[in-house]
Amino acid sequence: MTDRLLESRGLSYGIAILLLSLMMLPIYWTVVTAFKPDVETYVFPPVYFPKDPTLTPFQLLFESYPFWDYILNSIIVTVVTTAVVSVIAMFAAYGISQYPFKGGGFVLMVLLATRIIPPLSLLIPFYLVVSYLGLVDTLMSMIIANIYLTYPFAVLIMKSFFDTFPKELIDSAIVDGCSRSGALFKIVLPVGAPGIASAAIITFLWTWNEFIYAFVFTSTSKAQPITVGCFDCIGDIFVNWNQMCAGAVLAALPGIIFVFAAQKYLIRGLTAGALKT
């Protein structure tokens, strides 16, 4: 019986490793290509590991394209969106969770409905609104779009966390003289930081990686983020594959570092509302 169990586990692990290897293959190929010189990038049969790795694709990326502008645009849009969503979602989630009111369930259903609608189906209506407001090819258009895309999920995450917070502590703080806002900032936030941090992390990653809205709303380097900037490497008759892969590596690097640095808050925040006491 034990042998069969070990064999079944070995088979399961083998399948899992195989599937993981297949999923990691595009990432591996992107990273490897980013360090290939041109002679190894456009050769057949393909070179699976660079024999003469170089940083020239990264250097040419900044020399041939306004890549610093793309990075700065992504930072501005991501930081502003994350800050706005985190603050307003925190107040909304706290109010819905700790101070139930008539229609609160309907508000949650509306927030959930906005995430059920495929974002791609709203692309044209969003563009018409942005065009009417004169915000095409501006950072503000992407900030507004990303707030809409990330705000509902941030509220749902934070509400799940606030639902598990002991209401007795809030009542005791109010009895001791704290206002409702004072109880939020002095009692709830220090304990609820993981839930807020997890929502902020997800908002950061979604905003940083957003492509389709930015691709449609922007047309010049003054507003294009790094995800769209990588597309500059695709010309009419030629594709700078190694430079485009170098841009993709740089675009993915901040998100990877951010997740590794804050993963404990992400896990604690996502699992805090899983169990009801």
Could you describe the 3D structure shown?
With 277 residues, this protein is an all-alpha fold. It has two domains: 2-34; 56-272, MetI-like fold (Orthogonal Bundle). The chain has helices at residues 2-34, 38-41, 56-64, 67-98, 104-116, 123-132, 139-163, 167-175, 180-209, 212-217, 226-229, 241-272. Helix 1 crosses helix 12. The radius of gyration is 23 Å and the shape is globular. Residues 273-277 have low confidence and may be disordered.
CATH architecture of the largest domain: Orthogonal Bundle
Number of strands: 0
Give the helix/strand class.
mainly alpha
The CATH topology of the largest domain is MetI-like fold
Given this structure, which CATH class of the largest domain is correct? Mainly Alpha
Low-confidence stretches: 273-277
Sheet-strand content, in percent, reads: under 5%
> What is the end-to-end distance?
38 Å
Rounded to an integer in angstroms, the radius of gyration calculated over CA atoms is: 23 Å
Portion in helices? over 70%
What's the quaternary structure here? single chain
What characterizes the major β-sheet? none
The average pLDDT value, as a whole number, equals 80
Tally of structural domains = 2
CATH superfamily of the largest domain: MetI-like
**Helix tally?**
12
Could you state the order of secondary-structure elements as H and E?
HHHHHHHHHHHH
Q: Which overall shape is indicated by the principal axes computed on the Cα atoms?
A: globular
